[in-house]
Design goal:
4 helices; alpha+beta; single chain; 149 residues; two-stranded antiparallel ribbon
Amino acid sequence: MKEGSGKAADALCVQADYDANRADAYGCSKEWESWATCVEDKGTCDEKEARFTTSQETAGSCTNEQTLGLDCTTNAGICAMTQPNAYCSGGTCKYKTCDNSGQPCTTSSECPKMGGKDRCADQRTDIEKCVQDNTAHKQQQPQPGSSGG
């Protein structure tokens, strides 16, 4: 496990406990359970990076081509001296980059995974909507001992 990841995990647990108590206090336990089930079912763990996510991550691909602007018609070797993994194509020095990060690459396996849509965003939205609805409802209730209007 990475250094400091224990503290991050503790903070996440404290936040989850707070969120569960908040949902329960506003009568949103059903929505909380739906979100928790989604996290269990759709979350993924990257042990190498010591991280858990519900984001739909996608790996980048080594498909972008950048031009160095150097003429290599007479000396194709000049490209590699200027930029590692650069090559001569059409008389110009070029190199490949990852489509999602812009970092130089030779294969798609060198491109980082990037986070995408949270697979449990709808369930999180349901919790927030439930809390808001119940907060508004509670604020509209007459207080004990008042005439209500």
